[in-house]
Structure formats: C-alpha cells, structure tokens
Specification:
single chain; about 80 residues; alpha+beta; two-stranded antiparallel sheet; 5 strands; about 40% helix
C-alpha cells in the first residue's frame, strides 16, 4: 500500500516537473505577464517566478488582469 502511494506521488511530481519545464521553454515574458503562443490569457509573473506555479490571470476589465491565487488583486495594464 505504501509503495502504491509513493508511486502515485512520484508520478504526480514528475508530471508537474515536465509541465513546468515545457512552460519555461515556451513562455514569453511581455508587459509584466507570461504568454504562451496560441493562448489569449496571460499567466501570473509572481506565481511562476516565486512559486513555479502556472496560473492564468483573470480579466479585471479595461485591459487589466488579476491573479486568482493571490489574496490581493494584482492588476496589470497591458501596453
């Protein structure tokens, strides 16, 4: 049972590491946000650079975005 749990945990960690590696190689930093080609929603700079979490920013209106992972509303204007 313990080996099965450990195997599941290791697979999950490997999947996250592969996703992060793909993001690191494909993401472009522009206007204070990270962008992936073909994705119209940007990703949070802080979440990626500090926590290595890939988090889409939410639209806040008028070309601004907020990070749903943050307790504060992080608004960024798109240039």
């Amino acid at each position: 049972m313990d080996l099965l749990d450990e195997n599941t945990q290791l697979r999950s960690e490997l999947e996250k590491a592969q996703l992060n590696s793909d993001f690191a190689h494909k993401a472009v930093f522009k206007d204070g946000m990270y962008w992936l080609k073909g994705d119209s929603t940007p990703f949070c700079q802080r979440c990626w650079e500090i926590d290595h979490n890939i988090v889409h920013l939410g639209p806040a209106g008028y070309g601004t975005y907020y990070c749903p992972e943050e307790l504060y509303q992080r608004k960024i204007r798109r240039k």
